[in-house]
Write a structure and sequence with these properties.
The N terminus is likely disordered. Helix 2 packs across helix 3. The protein is mainly alpha-helical. It has a 3-stranded antiparallel sheet with strand order 1-3-2. Helices cover 60% and strands 11% of the residues. A hairpin with a 2-residue loop joins strand 2 and strand 3. It has 2 domains: 89 residues, Orthogonal Bundle (Arc Repressor Mutant, subunit A), CATH 1.10.10.10; 35 residues, no CATH class.
Length: 133
């Protein structure tokens, strides 16, 4: 039975979803090939079934084997993952998360990226003003 509530994924389930998103669709063997230190074929098959029951994957038979694909675009999964990162590491503060990203000395943002970020911040400001009016 599928559950439409967002489900927390285990580390291995997230790795499997990464493989599926990267390939768009994959068989059990293809998922195993995409994993570092993969578990057994039957363990991967069981994890795929769990992800399907959680509503993250669907399958269809192709040439006698199941081929799995994500039920939602990656951007929706990314939003849920980002929410969990904000809750876990940044006390639900987007400002703290952005500050951590921008203060990272390894980040080399281009002028175009900085302009895009400034525009997004301005849009957020405008939305807040409209809400509070």
């Amino acid at each position: 039975m599928r559950d439409n509530k967002p489900a927390n994924l285990s580390r291995r389930e997230r790795q499997i979803m990464d493989v599926i998103y990267a390939r768009r669709k994959a068989s059990v063997s293809q998922v195993r090939a995409g994993l570092e230190d993969p578990p057994s074929y039957s363990a991967v098959r069981a994890l795929l079934r769990i992800l399907e029951n959680k509503g993250h994957l669907q399958h269809r038979p192709v040439d006698g084997k199941y081929v799995y694909s994500a039920t939602r675009p990656r951007r929706y999964a990314a939003r849920g993952a980002l929410r969990r990162v904000l809750e876990t590491f940044f006390d639900n503060s987007a400002a703290q998360a952005v500050a951590a990203l921008l203060s990272n000395s390894d980040m080399n943002l281009s002028d175009q990226e900085l302009t895009q970020l400034a525009a997004l911040l301005q849009e957020a400001r405008n939305r807040n003003r409209r809400k509070n009016s």
